[in-house]
Design a protein that fits this description.
Elements lengths: L1 H18 L7 H17 L8 H8 L3 H13 L3 E7 L6 E7 L3 H18 L1
Antiparallel strand pairs: 1-2
């Protein structure tokens, strides 16, 4: 049952990108946004925060390329960022995360519940 719920959450999240088609936006740009969005979703549970620097290292893309698509995701209210201390603890960085809707939150709770039951 868990894989079906996981697919539903991912589908709900990705559909939010596909519904927010911007004028003059190419299909390739949307695919890049979906890729970036999915990567943020996948990494946000790690101990290390999801930052533009981390995404640059993983993808090999420049900060300008990451930020270009990240801005579109933030403008569409799909991704949010919060200020954190950088690795050295002196400067500022931004941690990225998926902005969930009430519907996605309920599905994630159902996945968590199903996973907990399987572990018992």
């Amino acid at each position: 049952m868990q894989p079906d719920l996981s697919r539903k959450v991912i589908r709900m999240l990705v559909e939010r990108i596909l519904e927010k088609v911007l004028p003059k936006e190419t299909g390739a740009a949307r695919l890049q946004q979906i890729g970036l969005f999915t990567l943020i979703y996948m990494l946000e549970g790690d101990k290390e925060p999801v930052t533009v620097s981390r995404l640059m290292k993983i993808t090999g893309q420049s900060d300008a390329q990451i930020i270009k698509h990240l801005r579109k995701l933030m403008d569409a209210e799909l991704v949010e960022r919060r200020q954190i201390l950088n690795r050295q603890g002196r400067g500022r960085a931004f941690a990225l995360s998926i902005k969930h809707t009430p519907k996605t939150k309920r599905l994630l709770a159902a996945i968590d519940k199903a996973t907990t039951k399987k572990k018992r």
